[in-house]
Write a structure and sequence with these properties.
By secondary structure, the chain is an all-alpha fold. It has a single domain, classed as Four Helix Bundle (Hemerythrin (Met), subunit A) (Up-down Bundle), CATH 1.20.120. The chain contains 4 helices and no strands.
Length: 140
């Protein structure tokens, strides 16, 4: 099921929320290309975009976490590395087998699963940590 951006996915940090919205938009572009039977063209573009965009986005998130002394930074970085490994596997399949609707579907699933699960389960944690410390709570 294709998910749309909504405030449910907001972590309350404008720069990061805007970047998350960019992921949703890329996912929707790929979905539209699949529907228009242009998945072969779109999958290479989507994988390249996700890799570039994720690299920039993860740098932003990790800098934010360092600035706010987030105690689970290393674990979060490991999740980012796992996402890159999954993207790399898609890129390898693209290089080996060429573009296909199946590969486009896998890229879409990866993007959607990542967005929904990672934002809702992981990103919200560093946002809550930062907000609790901004409110005057002592840093651990």
């Amino acid at each position: 099921m294709l998910r749309n951006w909504s405030e449910v996915y907001s972590v309350g940090i404008p720069t990061i929320d805007e970047q998350h919205q960019g992921f949703f938009a890329a996912s929707h572009r790929l979905y539209e290309q699949i529907l228009d039977r242009e998945a072969n063209q779109g999958v290479a573009e989507a994988i390249t975009f996700m890799r570039d965009y994720a690299g920039s986005h993860f740098q932003t998130e990790e800098a934010f976490m360092r600035d706010h002394e987030y105690p689970a930074l290393a674990a979060h970085q490991a999740l980012h590395a796992a996402f890159f490994a999954r993207l790399d596997a898609l890129a390898e399949d693209l290089a080996t087998f060429g573009p296909s609707p199946d590969l486009a579907e896998r890229a879409l699933d990866l993007t959607q699963d990542w967005l929904v699960d990672h934002i809702a389960d992981e990103d919200v944690l560093y946002a809550l940590h930062a907000k609790s410390h901004a409110a005057g709570a002592p840093r651990n």
